[in-house]
Amino acid sequence: MIDAKLIRERLQWVAEEVAKRGHILDVKTLETLEEQRKALQVSSQALQQTRNSRSKAIGQAKAKGEDVAPLLAEVANLGDDLNKQKEQLEEVQAKLNNILHIVPNIPHESVPQGRSEDDNVEVRRVGDIPQFDFLVKDHVALGEQWEMMDFPMASKLAGSRFVVLRGPLARLQRALAQFMLDTHINEHGYQEVYVPFLLNEDSMFGTGQLPKFKDDQFHTGDDFGYYLLPTAEAAVTNFARDEILQNATLPHKYVSHSPCFRKEAGSYGKDMRGMIRQHQFEKVELVQLVKPENSYAALEELTGHAEAILQALKLPYRVMSLCTGDLGFSATKTYDLEVWLPAQNTYREISSCSNCEDFQARRMQARFRNPETGKPELLHTLNGSGLAVGRTLVAVMENYQDEQGRIQIPEVLQPYMGGLKIIG
């Protein structure tokens, strides 16, 4: 959430910044509500002061043995007026919050301006695109050829946008997740955490899934009111909710492997074939909680950690700096990693690494104690996929296929596959 003080003091600038993201801020309504809030706050404070002075006068009158009935009646009326003022103030504040809760983060000055993914800027390319002397197959054809990828069975069990993996292909997905975890824990210094796959409303609000993206989430729809985990970030970042972390413990670096559940509302007709866009998929998620002055260095570091997985797997990829119009709701700057998929003859997103600065921390009241001032200050939060497991499986299958449709196992994964070198 954007700082309310910034909204009050630089409203027009905030409106211009979020407009770069395609969000139109209702400036006039905000100005009206802010005027009402100020007036009610001043009036409430004046009433409280008057009530306090009258209460003091009652005490003095009692001490003198005077009749205090008129004063008591006056104080009672002031109390009623004060309660009405508080109710009105709460109503105005709620209207303000309803607007502010759906305003996206302000983009960092280094973010390229643009309206859509077509305006994203390529930062670098890594790895050579493989050349094949045969007609390549996509991951669906490869998986079905060996009866290891079963979409009809998944449809029978659940519906569209699910998959059943069998045998060595199921093991390869598990191997990928385990390899990612081991790398991030042993080489990059993350602490592994296991989190609930159901979250409450406070957690979903804290990282920005609610209220704006409620329709994109799976909800249990019962008395518990749980939401299915959309990404481990939503759980892990909330570790710091309503906490004051000690400066000496920062940064906090977490890695978590979990399923993710998305409705993918509005995306029907796009990527319907295969595993690219599903209702249930797995990710190995990286989260960092850092001091504000370190967050942009942490973004480069976290992005590098995600890249390390692609490099170890020898998969060609590129790094894209997302433009203002393509940024996620909570992010102020994002790098997308896009892996090469031969069957599509293009790069496709496999990870998004974002700095949210204090946007999520303000919603969660996630703070640390500044040793110089001794006062609590808001943390900066970062997250990124390290990597999306299903899409990495797709990339391995398509980049490591041979003419017979067999899939070579990348060298770094062979120990996780019991020494198996080829599927098919």
Largest sheet: 8 strands, mixed
State the name of the first-level CATH class of the largest domain.
Answer: Alpha Beta
Name of the CATH homologous superfamily of the largest domain: Bira Bifunctional Protein, Domain 2
- The 3D shape can be described as elongated
**Class by alpha and beta content:** alpha+beta
CATH topology of the largest domain: BirA Bifunctional Protein, domain 2
Indicate the percent of residues in helices.
25-40%
Number of strands: 17
Mean pLDDT: 95
Q: Which stretches are low in confidence, meaning pLDDT under 50 for 5 or more residues running? A: none
Instruction: Assign the CATH architecture of the largest domain.
Output: 2-Layer Sandwich
List the secondary-structure elements in sequence, H or E. Answer: HHHHEHEHEHEEHEHEEEHEEEHEEEHEE
Estimated radius of gyration: 27 Å
The separation of the N and C termini measures: 50 Å
Output the strand order for the largest sheet: 1-10-11-12-15-9-8-4
Strand content: 15-25%
Number of domains: 2
Number of helices: 12
Map the helices and strands.
Layout: H1 4-9, H2 11-19, H3 27-63, H4 69-100, E1 121-126, H5 139-145, E2 149-150, H6 151-157, E3 164-165, H7 167-186, E4 191-192, E5 198-199, H8 201-206, E6 227-228, H9 232-236, E7 244-246, E8 252-261, E9 280-290, H10 295-312, E10 317-321, E11 333-341, E12 346-355, H11 359-364, E13 367-369, E14 376-378, E15 380-388, H12 389-399, E16 407-408, E17 422-423
Parallel strand pairs: 4-8, 7-13
Antiparallel strand pairs: 1-10, 2-3, 5-6, 8-9, 9-15, 10-11, 11-12, 12-15, 13-14, 16-17
Helix pairs in contact: 3-4, 7-12
